[in-house]
TrEMBL record:
Metal-binding recorded as keyword: yes
Cleavable signal peptide: none
Amino-acid positions noted as binding Mg(2+) in the UniProt annotation, renumbered to this chain: N149
Pfam families in the record: Endonuclease_NS (PF01223)
This protein's UniProt keywords: Metal-binding
Active-site feature positions: H118 (proton acceptor)
Entry's Gene Ontology molecular function annotations: endonuclease activity; hydrolase activity; metal ion binding; nucleic acid binding
SMART domains given in the database record: Endonuclease_NS (SM00892), NUC (SM00477)
Protein name in UniProt: DNA/RNA non-specific endonuclease
């Protein structure tokens, strides 16, 4: 009898794992949060806990169980996402994480010297209470140096929203890599008794398009791409333009394929562009 139950449990596990492995491919549709591709080939397989795909409806992420934070988060931003909903500030655990996984909560960053830094920001999801609330799930958060979060990063987020208000839509992928950052209380490699990694770098890639349809089909060699890679350091510059780089350099640092859904010839051009400013 015991062996029979064990076999049933193992069979259920492998079925769920197999189903999860089939769910990692993004749907190639307009406005899809992962339309640019799945950078790390994340899946919902329990055999892949450090590259675990989670669809929060308003953004999609690859979650890293052992680091207690996302590897990357991907989302689409257009005028319909920007409304009048107030910032909710309801930081909370993601209770949908698999059983037995550590869940960060609103106290996990207390007295750490690091901000609860959003990946998909609250300001990009003000169309409804549900949309804004989703951004405060703790698996959308990383330990971010306060000056990075409140100044450098906030300025870039506002820049992207202003792009949208001027008739554009943007696709965004944000993530972090490495270990060890400098917050308000100095250098640290982890917080919350070692359960949450403090990243060394925080990066973002933004693809800008005029409002329209057939988004992937409209991306070409002339499409505007913004890539930045910032040190997670409280002494960094407030000007995000000081940290512009190429998509290719972020790929080299992370091992990701950040524009995987695009034709290779388009990728080759866009990934080697460095943003130098402009409207």
């Amino acid at each position: 009898m015991r062996n029979s139950r064990l076999l049933k449990n193992l069979l259920a596990f492998f079925i769920l794992t197999a189903i999860g492995c089939k769910q990692h491919e993004p749907q190639q549709t307009d406005d899809n949060n992962m339309a640019l591709g799945n950078p790390s080939n994340a899946s919902r397989s329990l055999l892949n806990p450090d590259n675990y795909l989670i669809d929060h409806k308003y953004y999609i992420e690859s979650y890293n169980r052992d680091k207690g934070e996302p590897n990357w988060v991907s989302w689409h931003l257009c005028s319909k996402d920007i409304g009048t909903t107030d910032r909710l500030d309801n930081f909370r655990p993601d209770e949908t994480l698999p059983d037995g996984w550590y869940e960060a909560d609103n106290t996990s960053y207390r007295k750490s010297g690091f901000d609860k830094g959003h990946n998909c920001p609250s300001g990009d999801r003000t169309s409804s209470v549900d949309a804004n609330s989703a951004t405060f799930l703790m698996d959308n958060i990383v330990p971010q140096a306060p000056n990075n979060n409140q100044h450098t990063w906030e300025h870039l987020e506002s820049y992207c929203r202003n792009k949208v208000k001027r008739g554009n839509e943007v696709y965004i992928i944000m993530g972090c890599y490495g270990t060890g950052g400098t917050g308000r209380k100095g250098f640290a490699t982890a917080i919350d008794r070692g359960r949450i990694n403090v990243p060394a770098h925080i990066w973002k890639v933004v693809v800008v398009l005029p409002d329209g349809n057939d988004d992937l089909g409209r991306i070409d060699e002339n499409t505007q791409v913004i890539a930045i890679d910032t040190p997670n350091d409280n002494n960094l510059s407030n000007n995000w333009m000081n940290y512009t780089c190429t998509v290719k350099s972020i790929e080299a640092a992370t091992g990701y394929n950040l524009l995987a859904a695009l034709p290779q010839n388009i990728q080759d051009v866009l990934e080697n562009k460095k943003f130098t400013g402009g409207n």
